[in-house]
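Course assignment 3, question 2. Fill in each field.
Student: A.L.
Task: Predict the tertiary structure for the chain below.
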Amino acid sequence: MSAILPRWIFCFKLRLLFLLAVLSIFFQASVAYELETPYSITLEGPDALAEGQRLFAEGNFDRAAIYFWRAVLLQEQNADAYSVEDAFTGFIQSYSVQDRTADGFVYIAKESLHRGQKEMAETYLQQALAIDSNNEGALELQRKLKGGGREKVDNSRRKKRENKFQPNYGTPEADRPLDGKTPEELYEYGSTLFSRRNYEHCADVFELSCKRSNYQLGASCSNAVYCRHMIMDWGFNGTDFDGDLSRLITITKMETESYRQGDLDSFSWKRAASVHPHMMLGYPLDPMLKRYTAESVAFLDETMARVSDDGSIKALPEDLPFDHTESLAEYVAEASEPGFRLKVGFVGSGFNSKAVLYLSQDIFRFYDRTKIEMHIFSVGPADSEQFIKVGMRGVDWRERVKGYVDHFHDVQDIKMDHIALARYVNKLGIHILVEWDGYARQGERAQGLMALRPSPIQVLHQEFIGTSGAKYVDYLFSDEIASPPHLSHLYTEKIIYLPNHFFSKGHAVQKEVKDPTYEYLPAEFPYKIGTGSPEENRCMASGIKKPTFVFCNFNKFLKNNPETVRSWIRILREVPGSILCLLENPTSGVNYLRRFVHEASGEPSTFVDPTTKAEIQNFDPKDGDSLNERIHFLKWERNPFDHQQRNQDFCHVMLDSFPYNGHTVAQDALYGGVPIVTRSDGDDMSSRVTTSANLVLGLEGLNAYGGTTDYENIAISLGTNQTKYQELRKRLIGTALQRNPMHPYWDAPRYAKNLQQGFILAYDKFLSGQPPDHITVLESNEAARGTYDGTLDANSPDNDIGAEL
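Answer field:
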């Protein structure tokens, strides 16, 4: 483990030494904690340091931090064995490698406050906020410190310490910490638990809030469902799942009837719906309900951005939102000038190591600089140096994109001031503004910006796969398979239909992404990324026989539901010797999935008590236990390139989720030579991404238009027919390796041409005075010709970007 850290960390050495002197006084092994903490570990300092180093090397960074911090606490007692820098460096690195350096300093600040050192807590809190001004833990602690904090440690003040949900250990309230709490207080606590990814506990707290409100607090009632869905807690044999869906339907329909006015073209909302639009993507519900929830959030998005801390709403300046029709003549005159370039701006919080930049960075590499002036408005932070160095192995997508575009605007400082941000974008004369967050990053995105209409044309692209529900978003990029024209009523936007596939992906042109291979490299033990076949690597499971076939699904658990898992059960039964390889995401969901498989595989039974002769209800699991022995889990891989490459190593066929397909996950699988079986009977855009992909790739036979039975039968036929499977795999790998020209599906420069043509057509329509309407992008002869090596060489990331395509 490297000991190199940014210089600013060591400026805290003196403060840290003082903190240690204080902490050592209060360090007590008798403090009770439910989870593994520095206080529940029994290792001495040197052993704790060694264990932290071992866990760090294994990539178990969260646990490593705990052991390093224990070593920090015990350093004074082991001054001859190691230095404080050794332990403190490991602790901070454990957070920095995850791009969570601010969380590490928040941890230290909380430790300081817990010991009564308010000044020390404020010092580390400020460091956390300097790194990430929007860190939830830091802001929560800042509010607490402003409210008082504790400067002394004495029993009288300890008893009076205000803590709504975690009373002092040993007090009567500690046994019943939620007694007497209002629904609103419980909602607040549930939100905190959710931000900590404690989905089991937050589900219980939200449910309690819902019940105490007599089911009137819709946000708690719907969030309880979402937290359960995150970990696949569907009740016995999935029986609670239907009830949860019924709850969401009831809430959404009731709120639509109560708060929505108007028709599909002209509508208004009195308040936002309780169910969040991003949560709705994973539920098998009527897509119109999903449109309604998006509408409600979009309609009030800008107003909510003006709510002040005291609950009042600031007045909106009279000149906002901008009215671009008044300046139409000026726009027309500007466009007729020689050398005119269309100013396109992308705004989002994901211009760092997020999936959207992984997939779409090459848009900025290959756009035509004679036609487009490209701007980026980044409202999110850069990745930490340590994360880039260790987690990304030196690859910095943000810096790479900065070198591609004409202008990169870091606007974090005005992200929360949407009025100032709108004026800034408008002053730059941006013609088309592209929203790159949608509702995927609530709390991080530039809330309210698009509603102020800083640009004449506003577009939604890629990150949120569904309608924005906003009347101020003119267009959404899709294709005619993902968004069939007869389903246009599900969208508030007009659709720009792209050829080939609407979803951008740069796998074939990014040098860090390994090309798939027809043959597998010899397996290595222990496993090494890029070696072995799926049957040899066995989903990293030990002690099992070599499987005949490996199915996989590396989506988050929230994308699955009982119907999908029942299909997987049948597939495993019908393909003898096969296994299912899943991603452990989150870990707390593993036991719930195993419980469901156990229950869904069995059936109710009865037996007669020989003594009482009474008939007793029982449950026979049938083959549930043996099926669970064929389901295995991989740990999350933080490096995106290693994560992608594991598809070839661990998977023969991906079983897609429905109605929320794999998106980034699917592109990774396909470029790993892993065919995807997907259901094609849904109407949601998010459920049709893979259907569209398979058509472009020439793999339509993997599309289950007949629903669940068709989905199962296709998967079974691949698992039991090696000839058929190998033919499909070779065909898929052939598309990834195709050059001169590239295959349309993987051709990133071709995608950039078609995307910019969509921009140009939309803006031309605006200049002509026409309202937005559906646009079909027809490929030019140049785009349809495809991309050859010369274009890739001329636009290599290692070269100066600027060649014409």
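Instructor remarks: DSSP finds 32 helices and 18 strands in the chain. Residues 1-35, 149-164, 166-171, 800-805 have pLDDT under 50 and may be disordered.
Grade: pending
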